[in-house]
Amino acid sequence: MSSPPLGLDRLVPGASFPDLDLPDHTGRPRTLAEIAGGDPLVLITSRGWFCPKEQRHLREVTGLQDEFEVAYSRIVVVSVDQPAEQSAFRAGLGARFTFLSDAERRWIERLGLRETTDTVHDPYQPAAFSLRPDLTIHRAYNGYWYWGRPTMEDLRRDMREITREIRPDWRVPQ
Question: What does the pLDDT read at residue 8?
Fold first, then answer.
C-alpha cells in the first residue's frame, strides 16, 4: 500500500521534505540534497513558463540570486516543463539557479501538489519552502493565490534564521 500524498497540510515546518531526484534544466539527473550541498535553500514549485504569475514571481526571485550566492544559499524551481523549456525560461529570466523538471510527473502526486484547476498543463500548485541543509522544512508558503507567495523579504528572513541556526560562527566574537 502506497503512502498518502504529503500535500501542503503535511509539508509543514519541522517535517522533512523528500529528496527529489529529477533532471535539471540541462537534462542532468540531480537530487535536492546534492543541490543543497550543505547550505539552506528555497524550493519553489511552479506552474511553468506559460503562467504570467510565475513569470512575475520568478523575476523577483532572480533579483535575489546574487544575495543567495554570496550568502551560501540555494534556489531551486520545480515544474512539469521539459528541460529544454526550463532552460529557455531560465535564460529569459537571467537566472543562474537550478530548475528541476518533473515532466514525467513522478513527484507531483507524491508531494500532493497537483494544481487541479488547470487541466490543460496539469502543473504543480505554486508553493515555496525554505529548507535547512538536511531538507527539514523551515517555512512553507501556499502560492495558489498570488499573495500567499513569499516576498523577497520573507525569503531573506528565512535564510537569515536558518543560517543563524546552522553556522557556528554566526555570533560576533567577544
Answer: 64
Q: How far is residue 155 CA from its own chain's centroid?
A: 11
> Would the pTM count as exceeding 0.85?
yes
Between CA 111 and CA 78 the distance in angstroms is 12
* Alpha carbons 96 and 68: distance in angstroms, whole number: 11
Q: What is the pLDDT of residues 26-40, one digit of tens each?
A: 999 999 999 999 999
Give the closest residue to 139 by CA, choosing from 158, 124, 153: 158
Strands of the chain (E only): list them: 21-23, 29-31, 41-45, 74-79, 98-101, 127-131, 137-142
- Report yes or no: 76 and 109 within 8 Å, Cβ to Cβ: no
Both ends of the chain: CA-CA distance in Å?
56
